[in-house]
Task: structure prediction
Amino acid sequence: MCHVSVGHLARLLEEEGIATVIIAVKAFEKRLEAMLPPRVLITRHPMGRPIGPPGDRKHQKLVIEAALELFETAETGGTIRELPEGYSI
Amino acid sequence: MNETDPNRETFEEFKKSFSYGSRNDLNFKFLAGLSDEEAARFLQQLLWKLGDALNDGQWGRIVEHVIEGQVQGYSGPPRYTYDHGPFVNPSKSLSEAKLTLITSSGHFVAGDDPRPFGIENMSQEEAVRRINDFLKAEPVLSVIPKDTPAPELRVRHGGYDIRGPLADPNAAFPLEHLRELEREGSFGELAEETYSFVGACAQTRLLKHSGPQWVEMLKQRAVDIALLVPV
Result:
């Protein structure tokens, strides 16, 4: 249900002029897509670790940077991009 | 116990026990939503891949298998579908924007427990037991000041396995990275406050009551853009 709550929050924020990027794990992709959120970065991670493996600061930072980039590159709502780099432990 | 034992556990009961049952394991609660055949295949392949990994140490195949299982487990019909999605361009360029972070991971600062249902220091185990109460309740937003040291962060959430963020809060609440990226000039500034709530909550109350209040608060704090992280 977490992804639904965040999908709803993204819609509320965007309606009031605050641009959003959601970072979500692959398992949530289809259900988020159905909610037409503005911008989503999908990470191919296990649930509960959306930003990256614990302790892997390099990968975590890469995720955040890719999400920030979406603020500048997304041109329409429902933009979903998947980070090519996967989850390695 | 034998074939005629009325208490004999069926495979359906076995797979459902991982979702808030006797074998509760929130990484694998999706098993309950798979058909018997799908769940059996997932477990069989998991063991087979484990056998391979014991030989060559390539554990990535296990990670990938778990991810594929979770994707399959969440592939059913969505509960909320919209045919229109609001979209605004950021009001400022990234280099000038004030950014905040909002996660549904259930983080809060030590000493500022959101006290769900009036209970101070609720354990993670109790939060799991009371998941249905959370799902009926209005969400509570925890304010997490931007300078909060990582050891001061706490996490409690009955809907997912919190061991990832317990090991490293940045796995779900990337505050340290945002501070670093702010210093490096990747965006304008990090707002004084960041936020978290338990995303397992009543959707109507979120949409009609708390959500609009949060949005109004962020507007008053002149937040331009928000990074949102569900778990």
Remarks:
- DSSP finds three helices and three strands in chain A.
- The longest helix of chain A spans residues 57-73.
